[in-house]
């Protein structure tokens, strides 16, 4: 078996064949009880996008409220609930599951040439746990809502009388286990179901990213589970561990909470970085620069993420010693991210960049992630953080990394694998326009908030000094622009699904990882014949085929590549 | 099956793709026919077994982190209130805890033996071992029940209730001794002995409030030394030997914040107990499947995995026991 | 990719298709090993209880933890088969405990830094309960410099 030869089991034109995973079996139960990772991934994606819509509505509500100081559309209590719900839904229901559970579930086994993840039933169970957690969160709205902030800080969270606190804590507890089992599944799949020839360093970088994320999911999430359980027990039974009037320590709660929640933000960003590695390499038609550095940096970020949690607590009463230690380590966690950014830019250099929608999202990612990451350094610096903590600066920073990077990465990945998942091509121009609108709207919304924060506007405040109003107005306008952008994106993707949408070829972008060797959409068991493992970042033998409207392996180019290889080794 | 390396440095090795792949497919479906338990996405039973084990170890890692966070809370509380832990540990019955430890160790043994018998295909022995493990778990919970009920009876609980005197600390028989002459002044609380002299403790020269009086009979402060079982209290209480003060609130040696010890004690042992119950349920399912004959030398993975879970439950207790019961 | 033990099996039935009743996959731990491990564990339990009654000051907790670690190692190596299992499983087990220790170290380090400013004496809710229910309890009148 050569490195570059690719058997072409599907004839040209065999796209969206009658037997693919979507049409294999029909009926509600065949989806509700499916063990097919692709269907589970699609269901996750639908669920996550719906939650994104709900969380987005809460965001628009709270931004509308902030148009004027004092009351605009709602009371302060309602406003508190809006920002809490926006945060909790976005963090726990959208961003944490989005890339691993929705895209990862679909892509990971196919990229490995496997038939499924290691534990398909556990995979389905993870989905149902997500649904259960979402139900509890919905129920908490009916039970009176919660206004503690998504961080549930004590002592407010243990004493507030809003009725929805325990239901949402239960919901998040369940969601935590959904995340744990997904991570567990992925680790075992990557270890045990790799095909012959795919050593660790021949894996696509998206798999390295998912693997590093899975490590974080498995190690950090149980601590969240116990933290939430302790909160529930504290509320119900007054156990007193976090209650100062019983000799407890509320800062201990913060240690517990952030021990999970800081690695959690890396659960959000690391898979997005993996997607960007894939998109940039494929859409610039150039071998990824510094493969091993990117692979190792994913693991390094995962490891470092566990020792920096105290940077969320610099002004909470944490001791000076720990403040210093955490600040120092937080600086160093920026290094692996910088390594990646450098490698992506170097991949673009001298590449043949196609400004497709996925590439546009990837370029947005690099820009927005740089800003987000650098402003993180502002916050890691002790003396500036004293001024910036709990201001809009922090809000802007985490939106740049969580939304501008992680979410944009997810949407970019959705566009990148959309032809594979649905067998349809979307309208490229509309998708690019949507990306530009989102990018512009995003920067208007959140760059303004850096200014708000550095001038002292606190976060989570309902009311504010009049001199801040102009910034809030600009930011809200930006939020509406973003909403238009996301709406356009949604319409564009939905249109592709309608009857008459253009069918997708096997390899629309010219990728070389294994998912581009099966039909679009893939058959039920992923590959009609087993794929070949090669260098998944070597595009030299692909050429554009007009008839298929996709990339195919060209025999002549293939032979030339083989010759060039043997020459370079002789 | 040609497994030529895919490293580009090796140069071409000939186009042997199709035959090799086809052979692989044929080989794989033969395995599936031979082993009905082999899932469709695995190639060999060994791959499936290894994956299951790795998955279980990862789950155990999450359990370690789950309990580990509570151990962190323990460490923080103990570093903040070392005197509380030294004092309050005496309220826990070392013998009961020791028996529980031995019960769990033996149930771990029977579980490991169960795995052995499953691997050897000895169905009856496997079922016996599983029942023994279940019995050990049940025994553990029974002893735990006695420990808990005694403490709750004494208001040795978490939270503010700790500071409410237990109302019937001794019981009806002792209540009749309330009329006896008061003991001399030192308010040291000594354990009730089997002497007949039951005196009312005088704290600050006033009778203690309501019926929550306890009966120290000694005059010298003997702290928390071990004492013989009071036969009267043995009648009204359970059989736990009494080497502890009957009412913690009366003990001048009790440091403030002692309730914190009980808060973390119940949290950790309670969570552990929940895991024991879950273990019993899962072992019950195993017993059902073993009776049906599902396990043998070819396929015993669930037994192995449940065994791993049970050993982790044992492991957590191995750490809990010295940290709560054996503080000097 | 690993190969199954004793791979040359012809029978398709589940239970007794193996020579000498050996498992298809995995490792068989002899009964004697299991019983010896259990005995060692019981002996160590007795030792650890006995040590509790000997006063070696501060080191008691470390001795107790040390014996617990030895017991844990025995359970993990023999009962849980780690001695004969793939090394990665051992790495997973040790690795997760590293993170617990890390969390513990940082948290204890932090709280130890402000122990001198810690409020001693009965916390407010406890004091309230005491005043309402057991005002004569010795602990209710606990006095310190910070709580005169």
Give the helix proportion of chain C (percent range).
40-55%
Radius of gyration of chain A (Å): 24 Å
- Compute the number of helices of chain C: 4
Distance between the termini of chain C: 71 Å
Strand element count of chain A: 4
Structure description:
The complex is a heterotrimer of chains A (570), B (328) and C (148). Chain A has helices spanning 28-32, 37-65, 76-111, 120-142, 156-159, 165-192, 205-237, 250-283, 291-304, 320-348, 357-380, 382-388, 392-422, 428-454, 469-497, 555-569, and strands at residues 424-425, 502-503, 542-545, 550-553. Chain A has 570 residues and is an all-alpha fold. The longest helix of chain A has 36 residues, at 76-111. The radius of gyration of chain A is 24 Å and the shape is globular. Chain A starts with 27 loop residues before the first helix and ends with a helix. In chain B, strands 1-2 form a two-stranded antiparallel sheet. The longest helix of chain B is centred in the N-terminal third of the chain and has 36 residues, at 45-80. The model of chain B is unreliable at 1-24, 169-176 and 179-242 (pLDDT under 50). In chain C, 54% of the residues lie in helices and 0% in strands. By secondary structure, chain C is an all-alpha fold. At the B-C interface, helix 2, helix 4 and helix 9 of B face helix 1, helix 2, helix 3 and helix 4 of C.
List the helices and strands and how they pair.
The complex is a heterotrimer of chains A (570), B (328) and C (148).
Chain A: H1 28-32, H2 37-65, H3 76-111, H4 120-142, H5 156-159, H6 165-192, H7 205-237, H8 250-283, H9 291-304, H10 320-348, H11 357-380, H12 382-388, H13 392-422, E1 424-425, H14 428-454, H15 469-497, E2 502-503, E3 542-545, E4 550-553, H16 555-569
Antiparallel strand pairs in A: 1-2, 3-4
Helix pairs in contact in A: 2-3, 2-4, 2-15, 3-4, 3-6, 3-7, 3-8, 3-13, 4-6, 6-7, 7-8, 7-9, 8-9, 8-10, 8-11, 8-13, 9-10, 10-11, 11-13, 11-14, 13-14, 14-15
Chain B: H1 17-34, H2 45-80, H3 82-88, H4 94-120, H5 123-153, H6 172-175, E1 202-203, E2 206-207, H7 231-236, H8 259-291, H9 301-325
Antiparallel strand pairs in B: 1-2
Chain C: H1 31-52, H2 59-79, H3 87-113, H4 124-133
Helix pairs in contact in C: 1-2
């Amino acid at each position: 078996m050569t490195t570059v030869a690719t058997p072409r089991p599907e004839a040209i034109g065999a796209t969206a064949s009658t037997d693919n995973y979507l049409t294999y079996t029909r009926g509600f139960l065949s989806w509700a009880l499916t063990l097919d990772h692709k269907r589970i991934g699609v269901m996750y994606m639908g669920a996550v996008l719906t939650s994104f819509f709900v969380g987005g509505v809460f965001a628009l509500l709270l931004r509308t409220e902030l148009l004027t100081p004092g009351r605009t559309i709602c009371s302060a209590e309602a406003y508190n609930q809006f920002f809490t719900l926006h945060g909790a839904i976005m963090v726990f229901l959208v961003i944490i599951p989005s890339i691993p559970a929705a895209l990862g579930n679909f892509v990971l086994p196919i990229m490995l040439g496997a038939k499924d993840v290691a534990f398909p039933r556990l995979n389905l169970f993870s989905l149902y746990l997500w649904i259960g957690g979402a139900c509890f969160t919905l129920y908490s709205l009916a039970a009176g809502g919660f206004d503690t902030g998504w961080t549930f800080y004590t002592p407010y969270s243990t004493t507030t009388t809003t009725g929805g606190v325990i239901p949402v804590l239960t919901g998040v507890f369940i969601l935590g286990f959904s995340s744990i089992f997904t991570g567990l599944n992925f680790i075992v799949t990557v270890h045990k179901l790799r095909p012959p020839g795919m050593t660790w360093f021949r894996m696509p970088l998206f798999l390295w990213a998912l693997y590093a994320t899975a490590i974080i999911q498995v190690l950090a999430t149980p601590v969240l589970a116990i933290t939430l359980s302790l909160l529930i027990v504290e509320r119900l039974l007054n156990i007193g561990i976090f209650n100062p009037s019983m000799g407890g320590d509320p800062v201990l709660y913060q240690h517990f909470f952030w021990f999970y929640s800081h690695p959690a933000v890396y659960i959000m960003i690391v898979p997005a970085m993996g997607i960007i590695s894939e998109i940039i390499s494929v859409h610039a038609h150039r071998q990824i620069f510094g493969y091993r550095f990117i692979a190792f940096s994913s693991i390094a970020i995962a490891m470092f993420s566990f020792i920096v949690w105290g940077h969320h607590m610099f002004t909470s009463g944490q001791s000076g010693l720990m403040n210093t230690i955490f600040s120092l380590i937080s600086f160093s966690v920026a290094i692996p991210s910088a390594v990646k950014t450098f490698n992506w830019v170097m991949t673009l250099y001298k590449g043949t960049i196609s400004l497709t929608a996925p590439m546009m999202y990837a370029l947005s990612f690099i820009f927005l992630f740089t800003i987000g990451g650098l402003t993180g350094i502002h916050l890691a610096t002790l003396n500036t953080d004293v001024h910036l903590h709990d201001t809009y600066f922090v809000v802007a920073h985490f939106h740049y990394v969580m939304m501008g990077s992680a979410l944009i990465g997810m949407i970019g990945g959705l566009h990148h694998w959309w032809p594979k998942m649905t067998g349809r091509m979307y309208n490229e121009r509309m998708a690019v326009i949507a990306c530009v609108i989102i990018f512009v709207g995003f920067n208007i919304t959140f760059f303004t908030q850096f200014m708000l924060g550095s001038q002292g506007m606190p976060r989570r405040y309902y009311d504010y000094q009049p001199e801040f109003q102009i910034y809030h107005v600009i930011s809200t306008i930006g939020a509406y622009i973003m909403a238009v952008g996301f709406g356009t994106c949604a319409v564009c993707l939905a249109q592709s699904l309608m009857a008459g949408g253009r069918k997708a070829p096997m390899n629309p972008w010219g990728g070389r990882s294994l998912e581009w060797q099966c039909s679009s959409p893939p058959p039920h068991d992923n590959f009609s014949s087993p794929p070949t493992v090669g260098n998944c970042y070597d595009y030299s033998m692909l050429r554009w085929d007009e008839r298929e409207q996709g990339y195919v392996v060209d025999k002549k180019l293939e032979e030339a590549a083989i010759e060039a290889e043997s020459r370079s080794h002789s | 099956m040609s497994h030529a390396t895919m490293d580009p440095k090796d140069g071409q090795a000939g186009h042997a793709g199709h035959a090799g792949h086809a052979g692989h497919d044929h080989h794989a479906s033969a395995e599936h026919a031979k082993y009905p338990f082999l899932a469709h996405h695995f190639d060999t039973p060994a791959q499936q077994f290894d994956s299951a084990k790795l998955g279980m170890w990862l789950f155990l890692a999450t359990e370690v982190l789950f309990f580990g966070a509570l151990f962190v809370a323990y460490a923080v509380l103990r570093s903040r209130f070392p005197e509380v832990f030294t004092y309050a540990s005496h309220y826990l019955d070392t013998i009961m805890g020791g028996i529980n430890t031995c019960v769990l160790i033996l149930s771990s043994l029977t579980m490991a033996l169960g795995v052995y018998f499953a691997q050897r295909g000895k169905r009856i022995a496997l079922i016996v071992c599983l029942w023994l493990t279940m019995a050990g778990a049940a025994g553990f919970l029974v002893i735990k029940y006695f420990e808990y009920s005694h403490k709750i009876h004494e208001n040795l609980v978490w939270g503010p209730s700790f500071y409410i005197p237990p109302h019937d600390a001794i019981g009806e028989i002792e209540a009749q001794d309330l009329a006896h002459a008061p003991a001399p002044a030192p308010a040291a609380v000594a354990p009730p002995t089997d002497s007949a002299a039951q005196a009312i403790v005088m704290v600050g020269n006033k009778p203690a409030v309501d019926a929550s009086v306890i009966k120290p009979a000694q005059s010298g402060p003997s702290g928390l030394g071990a004492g013989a079982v009071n036969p009267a209290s043995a009648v009204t209480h359970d059989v736990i030997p009494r080497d502890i003060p009957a009412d913690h609130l009366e003990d001048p040696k009790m440091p403030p914040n002692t309730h914190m010890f009980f808060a973390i004690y119940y949290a950790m042992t309670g969570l552990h107990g929940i895991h024991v119950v879950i273990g019993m349920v899962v072992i019950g399912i195993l017993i059902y499947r073993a009776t049906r004959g599902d396990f043998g030398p070819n396929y015993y993975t669930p037994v192995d995995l449940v065994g791993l879970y049970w050993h982790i439950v044992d492991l957590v207790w191995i750490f809990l026991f010295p940290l709560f019961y054996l503080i000097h | 990719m690993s190969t199954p033990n004793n791979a040359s099996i012809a029978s398709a039935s589940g239970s007794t298709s193996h020579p000498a009743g050996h498992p298809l996959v995995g490792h068989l731990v002899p009964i004697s090993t299991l019983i010896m491990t259990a005995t060692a564990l019981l002996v160590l339990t007795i030792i650890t209880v006995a040590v509790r009654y000997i006063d070696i000051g501060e080191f008691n907790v470390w001795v107790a933890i040390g014996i617990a670690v030895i017991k844990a190692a025995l359970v993990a190596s023999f009962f849980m088969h780690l001695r004969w299992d793939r090394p990665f499983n051992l790495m997973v087990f040790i690795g997760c405990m590293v993170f617990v220790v890390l969390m513990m170290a940082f948290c204890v380090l932090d709280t130890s830094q402000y122990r001198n400013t810690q409020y001693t004496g009965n916390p407010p809710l406890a004091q309230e309960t005491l005043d309402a229910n057991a005002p004569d309890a010795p602990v209710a009148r606990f006095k310190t410099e910070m709580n005169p």
